[in-house]
Amino acid sequence: MKTQPSNKLGPFIVLIFIYFIVGFLTTVNGQCQAPLQIAFLSHAGELKNTFITLISFSFFLAYLLNGTLGSRWINCLGYKKTLIRALLIMTGGLVVFFFSSWFTVRYSELNVLIAGAHIPYGYFIFLVGSYLMGTSATLLQVVINPYVAAYEVKGTQPVQRMNIVCAFNSFGTTIAPFFVTGIMFGGLALEGIHIEQLMVPFLVLAAFIGLTAFITQRLYLPDVMHTKINRGEKLERSIWSFRHLKLGVVTIFFYVGAEVAIGVNVNLNAMELESTGQSLSFFGMQHLVVWGMNLGIPALLATLYWGGLMVGRIVSSYLSHISPRVQLTVTTLLATVFTLVAIITNNLWLLVAVGLFHSVMWGCIFTLAITGLKKYTAKASGVFMMGVFGGAVFPFLQGVLADTLGSWQWTWMLVVVCELVMLWYALVGSRVKEA
After folding, report:
1. How large a percentage of the chain has pLDDT more than 70?
2. Which one in 215, 227, 250, 401 has a CA-CA gap of 20 to 30 Å to 194?
3. Where are the domains of the chain?
């Protein structure tokens, strides 16, 4: 097994950049919901919210089905080769996105009737691409999370390193809404969006990720000691025998559900409010104009939410003296209060502020869940990623509730439930005990 190189920052910086890509493209996938609701689902009727949230559902379904695949690849191939495979899958997903757009433009008359809704075949191709993107993101995070936690950088603790890479991940999620509205759709109002505008951006992104895989293949990225089993070695106990890991998987299910629900559905809620004539002004502005492009308040809400995660993670990277358990306890309490007030007052700006508190939760939960696992860490990371499936369940369930209730307002109670589960894990479930 290779030892760590003299330049210990090199591999860390490589993983930071790739984690940025994961955050950026994850949010691009989610932020396509609102534009594609116009472009793909204009004839979906009362089921438009249910169908459009299938984009996030398909993406995060991959976490459930492919989490353990990543840990198997790490144990058989190592971290670097698993990383390269994941980047190639991401390239394939972007190519499928392109094909989905091309197919819909070329064969616009082909659609399927589901419960009275006319859905283009190209939409289902897009869902396949979303699943491939989710598979790639799963594999990349299965590699990066344990690597960053175990790869020693002088003057840092594991939870700090996790928050540093998550901060760059959040930078990607912050700029992604503007990329979708400002570049992919040229700053047009939602009603002016056409599906053919997707094709060139997705091809450019596919080429960029392919180039990233090519460059990464030539970089030195050593394995880290004591985080995976050696060839031919067998584990003495089941990964599920670690109680704090099992409960961590459950907790991350609820965390990602809450994080993604706000990130991908807050703009849909904003569109609903605007359609009913309710004001969503930003310092008196009804529209946000950047470089001559009208980006709109819904895009701004998503950007501020993901930006809050970025700012919170930058700040928390300096909190080495505060334990992950304390950080998780305080932030879940504050997130619960802010969400409840946002629901009661129907104030989306307060809901967006929850991003500040969500910022530290991933790093805290992951650090607590893998405490003391040593050679079980790589396998634990794969199992842990299965919990990210919550990002599929909760936004979709929220979309169904929005269609059922006729409004998004009270559907945010799902987020409150998620926050309370995380609070319980911080206080009780994260304690290390035998199963």
Report:
1. 80
2. 401
3. 9-218+237-429
